């Protein structure tokens, strides 16, 4: 019985983590999703414990029913929620309802297990509780560690939940029915065995169809032909566009595909690249920083798609580039997919480029990382600026200070600050706290393309001395930038700078950033959000 408690606790925590991870992927706000799932789950567990008191007269039968129901609901949870969100969009109410149902079933386990243990051996209640809780907590530890290190990498979210459900049904239902086979009447025992078998058959059928279900959900979600989809250790990567799409030899155009079906890259369901307008953001990040001083040694933080790197390599003075990207699956895709590789000008294969797969913040602080690799003439932070605390560590004072520390004398640091003007100023405060002088600039909203209306983007250029805005003579002129336009944007933003500068974000005091434009939780392909 303690072994059954151990396995059931492990399965219960895996269901909980699956819901947290799926909520983070679908909605993007990890703090809110974790808080909602944990709060609802704990409340529902208490409710389930109260409801279980009514079924302690036949604890073995009740426990078998609970475990079969939990295996079915938990095992199908990921596929159900993903398909529902992709098809209908409404997700918050669904995850709360499913979390509550799973919590009620998990909460019903402890009273029933306690009753069953007391039937096996009569002992002091305190000792019985200690044994049961020890098995439960150790099982939770194993489930919590197995989820990120075994289940997610080996199976993925959907198949991992289905496999967990199968283990739950066998351990919770079949084992208990075997140990306490004399409790149910023969007819009831046959029905319970049949129920467990049907649950296993249902989970097996769902596993066989999971690929088709996920493909249909992606088709409904992204609204374009999916040419690549994979769950890496860090994120889900989806690339859409015509299967035979190959941008032309002029990689500077950034289109090369049917304008009605441009190449799109999504990371964890959120748009990262859209072919026809990606150059605007990448040109604005790279060229101003490269235009006012030496550019022989460049550090690019993020940008594993190779598009910002393409702009860096346009400068003939570049001798070496260190690219630090967390996810090797992203750089692998950018190298091997014909369309995405051509869009990036095959920049990742340039002999001047050295790729390091590591968390940029951890790499910068490591003695064998940023300290040993620097100094750099130009540091470019091409990391996304999401409107929530999950990714704000890359705009924190600590991160910016570490990035400033690897600058060579006369070096420049450029940071993407997002599409919300209000998000510029905390980043500027962080750069100034690192001892740098700053210059805000941006690109205005552009005309609609195959990606929809091009949204404005804000950037900050920083250096030990007063930074200037210019375009370098050792590279072709950008398509979206002019020196006059950059200076006009800088003057406008300088005039809009708040009289009292907001405090810089810190790793321990990350704050939610103001929303940046339309809601990104949608059922069709997001429009106009280049990385």
Which terms would index this structure?
seven-stranded mixed β-sheet; four-stranded antiparallel β-sheet; disordered C terminus
Distance between the termini: 52 Å
Low-confidence stretches: 245-257, 387-391, 512-531
Average pLDDT over all residues:
83
- Sheet of most strands: 7 strands, mixed
The ordered string of helix (H) and strand (E) elements is HHHHHHEEEEHEHEHHEHHEHEHEEEEH
Give the spatial strand order of the biggest sheet: 7-6-5-8-9-13-10
Number of strands: 13
Q: Count of helical segments?
A: 15
Shape: elongated
Structural class: alpha/beta
β-strand amount: 5-15%
Rg (C-alpha, Å): 27 Å
Helix content: 40-55%
GO cellular component, one term: plasma membrane
Catalytic activity: S-adenosyl 3-(methylsulfanyl)propylamine + putrescine = S-methyl-5'-thioadenosine + spermidine + H(+)
EC number: 2.5.1.16
Protein name: Polyamine aminopropyltransferase
């Amino acid at each position: 019985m303690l072994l059954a408690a151990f396995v059931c606790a492990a399965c219960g925590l895996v269901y909980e983590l699956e819901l947290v991870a799926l909520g983070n992927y679908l909605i993007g706000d990890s703090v809110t999703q974790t808080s909602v799932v944990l709060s609802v789950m704990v409340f529902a567990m208490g409710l389930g414990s109260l409801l279980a008191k009514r079924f302690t007269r036949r604890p073995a039968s009740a426990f078998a029913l609970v475990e079969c129901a939990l295996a079915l609901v938990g095992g199908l949870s990921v596929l159900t929620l993903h398909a529902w969100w992709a098809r209908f969009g409404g997700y918050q109410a669904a995850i709360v309802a499913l979390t509550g149902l799973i919590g009620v079933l998990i909460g019903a386990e402890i009273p029933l297990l306690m009753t069953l243990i007391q039937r096996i051996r009569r002992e002091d209640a305190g000792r019985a509780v200690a044994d049961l809780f020890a098995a439960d907590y150790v099982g939770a530890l194993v489930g919590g560690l197995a989820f990120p290190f075994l289940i997610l990498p080996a199976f993925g979210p959907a198949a991992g939940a289905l496999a967990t459900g199968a283990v739950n049904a066998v351990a919770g239902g079949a084992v208990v029915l075997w140990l306490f086979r004399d409790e149910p009447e023969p007819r009831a025992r046959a029905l319970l065995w049949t129920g467990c078998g049907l649950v296993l058959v249902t989970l097996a059928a769902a596993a066989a169809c999971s690929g088709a279900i996920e493909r249909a959900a992606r088709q409904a979600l992204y609204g374009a032909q999916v040419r690549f989809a994979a769950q890496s250790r860090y994120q889900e990567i989806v690339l859409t566009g015509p299967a035979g799409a190959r941008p032309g030899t002029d990689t500077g155009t950034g289109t090369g595909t049917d304008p009605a079906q441009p190449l799109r890259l999504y990371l964890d369901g959120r748009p990262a690249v859209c072919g026809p307008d990606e150059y605007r953001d990448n040109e604005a990040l790279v060229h101003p920083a490269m235009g006012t001083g030496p550019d022989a040694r460049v550090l690019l933080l993020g940008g594993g798609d190779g598009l910002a790197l393409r702009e860096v390599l346009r400068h003939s003075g570049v001798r070496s580039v260190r690219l630090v990207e967390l996810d090797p699956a992203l750089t692998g895709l950018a190298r091997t997919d014909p369309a995405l590789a051509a869009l990036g000008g095959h920049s990742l294969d340039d002999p001047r480029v050295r790729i390091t797969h590591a968390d940029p913040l951890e790499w910068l602080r490591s003695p064998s990382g940023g300290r040993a690799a620097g100094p750099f003439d130009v540091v470019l932070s091409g990391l996304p600026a999401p409107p929530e605390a999950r990714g704000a560590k890359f705009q924190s004072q600590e991160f910016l200070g570490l990035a400033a520390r690897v600058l060579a004398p006369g070096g420049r640091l450029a940071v993407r600050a997002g599409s919300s003007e209000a998000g510029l100023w905390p980043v500027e405060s962080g750069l100034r706290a690192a001892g740098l002088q700053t210059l805000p600039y941006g690109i205005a909203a552009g005309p609609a393309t195959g990606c929809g209306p091009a949204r404005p983007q804000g950037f900050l250029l920083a250096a030990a001395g007063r930074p200037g805005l210019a375009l370098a003579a050792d590279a072709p002129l950008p398509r979206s930038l002019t020196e006059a336009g950059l200076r006009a944007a800088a003057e406008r933003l300088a005039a809009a700078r708040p009289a009292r500068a907001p405090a810089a974000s810190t790793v321990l005091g990350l704050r939610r950033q103001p929303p940046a434009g339309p809601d990104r939780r949608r059922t069709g392909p997001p429009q106009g959000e280049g990385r």
